[in-house]
Structure formats: C-alpha cells, structure tokens
Design a protein that fits this description.
0% strand, 86 residues, mainly alpha
Length: 86
C-alpha cells in the first residue's frame, strides 16, 4: 500500500515537471534548435579540416619491444607509410 502511495507521488511530480517543460519556450529551443546548430557547426568544421591536409604529431612508447610494437613503430617511421591508417 505504501509503495502505491509513493509511486503516485513520484508520478504526480514527474507529470508536473513535464507540463512545466512543455510550456517553457526556451526548453523547445534547447531540444530542437541547439542540436541543429551544433550539427551544422560540426559539419562545417569537418569540411574545413578535410579540405586541407591535416598533420598530427604522435608519441609512441614501446616498452616491451615486442613484434607488434616494433612493426607499429617501423610503420610510423617509414617515409612510405599509408595515408590512411585504420
């Protein structure tokens, strides 16, 4: 019986909060407009970065000197390394 009372109180509070959020115009802006703007900015940033060749400095620490680590270090030091490493 107590559980049902607690659940009804929780649902009443949740319903009140939902009604407040639906009435709030700034919440609608955050729900719809902000993701569209952020997606547009990210798309522009990706387009700008892909139009020119990008460069990244890598630091590799080979502590075990195993065959996989040695092959990785050799690949990155090679002047003929592939452009896209996946």
């Amino acid at each position: 019986m107590r559980f049902m009372y607690v659940m009804s109180v929780v649902l009443a509070i949740a319903a009140k909060d939902l009604r407040q959020r639906l009435r709030d115009k700034s919440a609608w802006i955050m729900v719809f407009l902000a993701p569209v703007v952020i997606s547009g900015l990210m798309a522009m940033a990706m387009a700008l970065s892909s139009s020119s060749e990008s460069r990244a400095d890598l630091a590799i620490t080979d502590l075990d000197h195993g065959p996989a680590a040695t092959a990785l270090v050799t690949t990155f030091k090679s002047p003929r390394r592939p452009k896209n490493v996946s």
